[in-house]
Protein: Probable nicotinate-nucleotide adenylyltransferase
Amino acid sequence: MGSRVGICGGTFDPIHLAHLRASEEVAEELALDQVVFMPCASPPHKKRVQASAEHRLEMVRLAVQGHPEFAVSDLEIVRGGASRTLDTLGHLLEEDPERQLFFFLGNDQFFYLHTWHEPRLLLDMADFVVMDRPSSPRWDLLDYLQTELDPAFAPAEDGWFRLPGGKGVRQVATTLLDISSTDIKHRVASGRSISFLVPQAVEDYIKSMKLYTNAGQD
Structure:
């Protein structure tokens, strides 16, 4: 059996403490060997990002310093264009077919998985972990899986819902830190503090690069 690796993707515009804390708790709950943070180049399902890919990647690198259980991948940024999860998971499995992948999504994202590119194929490539977030929809997970993705989903061990092939989906409760990248950007733009919302190294980088201000670099 290969290593158990969590994949936490996103724009990270900027990365903040809620991203880090939730990932830490999921890694502990599922006994993962590592969590890889993967900033996307151009998200197909979100409005445009404000900071450049290079700035967002550097902020993620600064955020995970000193945490050996966390790693950073520039795979989607180097590939460029719209970041499709199908391509990303396929690349990671080609790289190491023995690696067991766990793809992290918040409630607010997961319940739109049926609108993604080839969602059923994604469920053959990785286990999906649904993380609770403040103000996210409280839909019935099994009902959603069976109705929108595959009627073959069924309850399994330890809170998992699995397909006959073995891959599954599990909801993991995490500490609900009501922090958003949008709010952080608004705070910076209006000259307010973002201390204790992002790691200190990320705050220092945002200030030094003048990110998220009218005079800042995109």
